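One chain given next:
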Amino acid sequence: MVQRRSLAVPCRVPVLGISFLAFVATGLELSVNNQAADFTLSTELGPPISLSCLVHNSSQAEELLWYRGDGQVDLKDGNKVNISNICISPVNESDNGVTFTCQLARDKSVQVSVILDVQFPPRLSGEETLHVEEDKDVTLTCNSKSNPQGQPTWYKDNNSLVLQQSHHQLYQTSEVFQLSIKKVQKSDNGTYTCVVESPLGNGTKDFHLIVEDKKTVFPTEAVIAAIVVVSITILFAIVARKDKIFKVW
């Protein structure tokens, strides 16, 4: 690797010039899955997909390179010259939006890129129980990832939730959907359902909200302050009457 890099540095300008003339003369180009320009490939979770890179109009053996994002893909020796194939198996959510690029080894400006568009439904299920004290705030959170992005709808006790401007707040990103309830009351008791809908399917999660009576808070700070005041008062009284106390003793 080091030796090849040191040889390439001083020869960079003439090599690029020769390569450019060769491309003009022969029309050398690459294609991936018969596409000569960058493109997006839509697929689904699970089944493997193959990407095939081919050199066109070449009069000599051309080495090919593959990249997944910024990282180079390891290729076997028999899978590098004039044609090169890679397989993504199994396709999963982490492959969504990833760019795979085939490049000519001797001139990386000759390349074709493929962006994977992995489509999958919302993954959301289960239930959660929340105990909240009256007059406290609570936030119900649905974490749901999907492609295309799902849209949330909130229900209370199987009915569409009627939002009150000063009482409810909604927040969402591409993967997080939240319902906040300010200063919960007994009337907020019930089952809240987050439904995330997409063209490929829906995801659902239930929240059982139980509003508990407001607890009486023991005035710890006030008691401590009273004890301190009483203690100081007693101390001053003792100091003021110390002569009489000593005479008694």
